[in-house]
Amino acid sequence: MTNVPLRDHWIDHLRAFVTILVVLHHAAMAYACFAQFNPDLYIASTHPVVDSARWRAFDFFVAANDTFFMPLMFLLSGLFFHSARLRRGTRGLLKERFRRLAIPFLFAEFS
Questions:
Q1: Best label site of 35, 57, 68, 111, fewest CB within 10 Å?
Q2: What are the angstrom distances between the C-alpha of 33 and each of 28, 41, 61, 77?
Q3: Among positive and negative, which fits the CA dihedral 13, 15, 17, 20?
Q4: What is the DSSP letter of 33?
Q5: Which residues have CB under 8 Å from 30's CB, separation 6+?
Q6: Residues 31, 55 contacting (CB under 8 angstroms)
Q7: Is 89 helix (H, G, I), strand (E, B) or coil?
Q8: Which of 54, 9, 13, 7 lies closest to 34 in space, CA to CA?
């Protein structure tokens, strides 16, 4: 019999839920009443896509969602960091993170 570690399915569901919240958040930003796009100064824009149809409920959704979903994502990633470091070792974890995060970032930045 193999030694399969038990999974906490509620964490998997929470990660999926937070990912869906992030997608909905970015989709709703185009329809929020405060959304604006400044073609002359892009950094002053709230979102790269802004629709003329607005709905006030998206303002409340974006504001409420903005308060917790990023901290929750960082909390969830932190839950798995310690076990990953123990499993791979510090050097192996840093090498794997560099391969998965830094190389694609550098490729996207300089291409």
A1: 111
A2: 10, 20, 12, 32
A3: negative
A4: T
A5: 47, 49, 50, 51
A6: yes
A7: coil
A8: 54
| Helical axes 90-97 vs 56-88, angle rounded to 10° | 140
Distance CA 103, CA 111 (A): 12
Least confident of 3-12, 35-44, 102-111: 3-12
Owner of token pair 């409920």: 57
pLDDT digits 0-9 by tens, 48-91: 888 888 889 999 999 999 898 889 988 988 888 888 899 999 99
Half-sphere exposure of 1 (CA within 13 A, CB side): 3
Tell me the C-alpha distance between 75 and 80, whole Å.
Answer: 9
